[in-house]
Amino acid sequence: MKYAFVNPKWSFTGSTYFGCRDPHYPLELLFAAQKVENAGHAPLLVDAQNDDLALEEVKRRVAEFEPDFLVIPSAPSYLFWRCPPPELRVPMDYFRAIETSATKVCIGPHASATPAAVLRKTGADIVIKGEPEQAIFELATKPWEQIDGVCYRRGDGSLHISPTLAVVDMKTLTALDFSNYSIERHAHRHHVFFGEGRGAELEFARGCPWNCYFCNKQLFRNKFRERPVDAILSEIDAVIARGVNYVYFIDEIFGVGKNVRMLLEEISKRNVSIGFQTRIDLWDEDSLDLLGRAHCISMECGIESITEEGREELNKNCRMTTERITELLIYAKEKAGIPWVQANLILTDKDDKNEIHRWQDNLKSHGVWVSEPVPMFPFPGSPLYSQTFGAAPDDNAWERAHSHYMSQFREGDWSDIQEQLPRSIAELESVEENAAR
Q1: Which CATH number does the domain 175-370 belong to among 3.40.50.11540, 3.40.960.10, 3.20.20.70, 2.60.120.620?
Q2: What mean pLDDT do residues 91-102 have?
Q3: Coil, strand or helix at 313
Q4: Please, which of 107, 343, 373, 395 could form a disulfide with 347 given CB 3.0 to 4.6 Å?
């Protein structure tokens, strides 16, 4: 069997999307392509974002390959499955444009939360709920109704919606060799705002043991699991050999697992720097010093609220006081020598604005960057969605969440990394408007 994996050239015009817009390694496609190849099938990876390919060139490559399966994600990179563009405009465009007799497969956070809506909107034959790597290669060998996470429209028009999510055993994700990927075209160093170099995104662990109120990970990448350290080191050495000197770990939460210290000790011996997202309450002075020795240059910490009451309301399960959090953030910057330490805040009624400003000013005086508190997007599948709307996601969940989020802003209040005149999902997904672009 032949599998074509396509990472679209993503567009965010008019979107409320607040993630990074630069290209990132499509690890979900790289891992799936590797599993397909290991199972004796033929994969083709086309990364239109990284390689700056026009849609016509993507169509040509897929047509020439003549695949049995065409796989397209609904969001850019695993890193942004937690905060995806709410609309499906881009995958809809690609599924419509690529003329093929192949079985069309859509993966991603939208498919995990609202599989019937994704089938309808994209015209895909199959969507996969959860982590897709295992399910994708099983499509060639098993009856679809027996595969975890696989949802599709039967011949009589009825829907088969898998009652389970696809979950991957991380030990089966053997080291990527990147022989099918244009590493040299990828210059972006994620979450680094100074200097020069060449970056890569890798994955050490998947999932998170916490269940924060706002976090969108329950329907994919939920249970915490580590990959073997040797596999990560093999990937790090592979990208270093091709000119990479910075690795960003896409993990939901870096610093939890039992093998983190071992990994950091090995990284400290290599000519590479690292960055990641984490919780500051996972670290102390000794482990922050280890981060410094491991050449950490970017550390983004989810603080969310400056009060214990606010963090409790968000179900952070944080056992540190705000004073201790402050101490460690400053230590990471000034003593451990991490150049970029960031503290992220979320809008909560438990925090006084004047107190927030004082806390921000104090940390900024020590060189720690602090975000402005931002409203939460109630992503379908997150605890926030269920508590906001009192129900599980239905086929209108993304539109409902998007409308609610838009109502929290006045014109001009949007983040500087968002579109200042965002449009409704209906407008963004309009076939007529997309054809006119």
Answers
A1: 3.20.20.70
A2: 97
A3: helix
A4: 373
